[in-house]
Design brief:
104 residues, 5 helices, 0% strand
Length: 104
């Protein structure tokens, strides 16, 4: 049922490594790449599934040439496991904050 190491490695190269290498070969400035990656990861951990893609699209439209759109979206995709892992802690934090506000 599960993926073998070879298939997993091939998938990782196809989906992560190859797009990243293509971005680097096109000559984008390192400062712009760092900003775009940070933006994609930051927006990518928003705790509602599906919303980070929309937020990244809005940020790309708003910032224009200040960010590199493929890097923002790639970082957003890479941040998806962290987003899913943080949903429950964000919900617990929201519960705690709401309860504290009610009883203060």
């Amino acid at each position: 049922m599960g993926l073998s190491k070879g298939r997993l490695k091939a998938w990782f190269h196809k989906k992560i490594t190859d797009p990243l290498l293509q971005i680097l070969r096109r000559g984008t400035e390192p400062k712009q790449l760092a900003f775009s990656a940070a933006l994609g990861i930051t927006l990518g951990i928003f705790p509602i599934c599906g919303v980070p893609v929309f937020l990244c699209g809005v940020a790309i439209a708003f910032l224009g040439s200040a960010c590199h759109a493929p890097t923002v979206m790639l970082a957003n995709i890479i941040a998806t496991p962290a987003e899913l892992a943080l949903v429950v802690p964000f919900l617990r934090l929201g519960e705690k904050s709401l309860v504290d506000l009610i009883f203060l």
